């Protein structure tokens, strides 16, 4: 399943709970956005179980 499909399913479930039209507008804007800088790594699942610490300092982010 693609992210767009998941967004549509979530918005269908959330009708009457959130402003679905506004959410769709934000999603459409996000799809056309672009990062204007050199590529970087981004970890979208920063949970305690994904963080490794050594000597009290963050040493790695895993998943």
Automatic annotation (TrEMBL):
One Pfam short name: APH
Domain Aminoglycoside phosphotransferase: 9-63
Superkingdom in the source lineage: Bacteria
InterPro entries listed in its UniProt record: Aminoglycoside_PTrfase (IPR002575), Kinase-like_dom_sf (IPR011009)
Protein name, per record: Aminoglycoside phosphotransferase domain-containing protein
Taxonomic source organism: Planobispora rosea
